[in-house]
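Problem: given the chain below (318 residues), write out its structure.
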Amino acid sequence: MHPITQKKRITEKTYNFKPAAIIITIFSVILVTISLSMIPYVPGDIKSDFYMESHFKHLNTSKVLIANLSSSISSKNLIFIGDVHGSLNELEKLIKKINYNSTNDHLIFVGDLVAKGPESLEVVKLVKKYESSCVRGNHDDKVIGWKALLNLLSRKGIKLKDYVKKNELPPHLSMGTEHLNLARHIDKELYEFLSSCPIVLNIPEHDIYVVHAGLLPDVPIDQQDPYDIMNMRNIKKNGKPTKFLKKGHSWSRFWNNAQKSSPTPKTVIYGHDASRGLNIKEFSFGLDSRCVYGGELTALKWNEGKSIHSVPCGKYTD
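Solution.
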């Protein structure tokens, strides 16, 4: 007889169940079922997918995204503008003051177009309208990071609140911030423009690097950490960059000393360091003149000569 159809002898046994045990068992099953239903289904590795997003791949692998300004653009009058931080009214006044002409002039922003000020997305829209160049600032980077994560979770059908219950956020992102709110409201066109801003803009015709925060003088530029380029203020005794002013000395001091003995000196134009304000040296130009804190918004015109222009700003943050 085939084993499947063979009848088995059933031995009857008597089981004694206590009512309390039955109730506890049923209650435990219900709790487990509810708990499992609350865990979001996460297809794939979100963190890996996040860092593989096109705008972040270079950051995850610690490679610096360097863009070269075309010779056709660098032949124009270059106008570098400091940290705007959503100060639209002041930016419009500055552009008017410098008599900007799109035929002859080209605007280059040193990062931090967004956050702290009142009209961040309108600033990005205006910068894009003028077909300006830009580099990525640390605040821009946080908005870009949030938008990339929101887009990724949306494609996978996962709510942000469910994701953060079970996962750590990327290190530069925090819940409840202005950057998250801006990421929720920035449209695709402005997001793509903002995220296209490189970490380093190289202008070979003028021997200029444009970055947001700073550069290390003794490390090849393509081997420097993007986070440091967007955040550093000082260099410590051990040669490591830091964003803290109380540790070490200004990176620009080391940079200028190194360029004086270099056969091919390069000038760095940057922002970020509002605490030091407008900071002009032979081989570095710091243009963050504390606009969003009630200071000024500054432009550096770089053509046959160099000239500084600025407008006063309202105070939007402490």
